[in-house]
Design brief:
The protein is an alpha/beta fold and 243 residues long. The protein is 32% helix and 26% strand.
Length: 243
Amino acid sequence: MKPFLLLATRSEDVPADEEYGLFLRYTGLDERDLVRVRMEAGPLPEVDLDALSGIFVGGGPFNASDPAASKSAVQRRVEAEFAALLDEVVARDFPFLGACYGVGTVGAHQGAVIDRTYREPISVIEVTRTDAGRGDPLLAALPDTFTAFVGHKEAIRVLPPSATLLATSPGCPVQMFRVGQNVYATQFHPELDVDGITTRIHAYADHGYFADHELEDTLAAVRRMPVTHTGEILCTFAQRYAR
């Protein structure tokens, strides 16, 4: 089997390694079949799509809607590398699934309006499939409404014409979309479990997702409802596109 590629951008080793472990767990792949590249650590090596089954993108610290002057050199490089990669991915309709940062990568590439209108605190929410989502193979086995972990400073306010909305929620209308038939992005985190999001809450406690006095409330918020279905999206993607 040709391997899948996981593109990661977290500079903190503990959440970065845990993220990789969660992708391995939910996809059912092993380390030979899910190769990780940490883009924050250095320039992206040449990516040969013909040598891959598909691409995953994890979450990350970068916001596409940040003012250009405030973006670090690393963020600007990573965004340019994603833009160049997505030129080929979208043109070929190559299997791609971006989790959370997929909104900032695929959305920005396709001309979505991304801002802080629909930012969500770290929590568990209910997500609902659209009519198109009910017919999409990645969501076919999920219930019409399912729970998911979220926590983001920006979101898509206006979806581009090239995208098909697959899932939505009251607090954030664009929770999952597809471009073409095989390029996906989610605003929620399909790769997370309670332990994983707890690690991130502690790792990013000073990154502006919540105030210092809100730590305990945030830890409680991710336990208020069980999250049981979203990992199936990663498993289905891996099974569907393995070649």
